[in-house]
Automatic annotation (TrEMBL):
Role description: Hydrolysis of 6-phosphogluconolactone to 6-phosphogluconate.
Coiled-coil annotated spans: none
Pfam families, A to Z: Glucosamine_iso
Reactions performed catalytically: 6-phospho-D-glucono-1,5-lactone + H2O = 6-phospho-D-gluconate + H(+)
SUPFAM superfamilies: NagB/RpiA/CoA transferase-like
Domain of life where this protein originates: Bacteria
Keyword Hydrolase included in the entry's annotation: yes
GO molecular function, one term: 6-phosphogluconolactonase activity
Associated pathway: Carbohydrate degradation; pentose phosphate pathway; D-ribulose 5-phosphate from D-glucose 6-phosphate (oxidative stage): step 2/3
Domain Glucosamine/galactosamine-6-phosphate isomerase: 14-228
Claim: Hydrolase is one of the keywords in the record: yes
Protein's name according to its UniProt entry: 6-phosphogluconolactonase
Amino acid sequence: MTTDMRHAVVDVLEDADAVAMKMAELFIKVVKEKPAGKVRIALSGGSTPKKLFTILARPEIAGQVDWSRVELFYGDERYVPDGHADSNHASARELLLSKVSIPAGQVHPMPTETTAVEDAARYQTSLQKAYGADTLEAGRPLFDIVMLGLGTDGHTASLFPGEAVLDEKKAWVGVSAPKTAPHERLTLTYPAIASSALVVFLVTGENKVPMLARLRQGDGSIPSGRIVSEGKILILADRAAAGELS
Ligand SMILES: O=C1O[C@H](COP(=O)(O)O)[C@@H](O)[C@H](O)[C@H]1O
């Protein structure tokens, strides 16, 4: 079964706090319900997941997760040094990873150390090691959850409009050079995102209304509209983003 955006399930929640709480509940559920093995989750970047990270770090919530079974990856990273204010990993580390008992070897930041092209290849190798194969297999998803955001230009992860990486069919990780700063990024490609049991978009705020409407229609002229998953796709949106407040 492959799901495209036109067949995504949409859940409209009251506000950004409710979206973050719903995602935290889903995170807990997926970890609890996977019968065996590691639970591989790709985190999204930008500002939207920050509320989720804060909730997951709360002792009463973190205590419901068996962190020894969780392996965290990233959907994209800004090509900035570790610790930079724009780094997606720095934000996750500050709000979540430094506060929960996840083994250090089970957190996989995208490297930003040599060149973007070399580091994309290195990250692909890390993913292949975690997956246990060099080729993605149907019915054995790389990720249990891929979390994604939605940019006001329709990008998701760092799949920006007009970028060559949108046409990547083979590599799991690619490079993009968007007009939006920081201008160099690493990103999971469509095939890597598609190798997922569940893709969840977190979309909040009034400024996302036009793009969320296009995402829900599966508008292939925006990068997010072309996302597919071999599992399910869920959109968690707040009422502001869904246009229910206007
Ligand atoms: O640059 C990025 O933008 C998108 C959306 O970010 P947000 O701040 O509007 O939540 C995000 O999903 C992506 O990971 C990030 O690198």
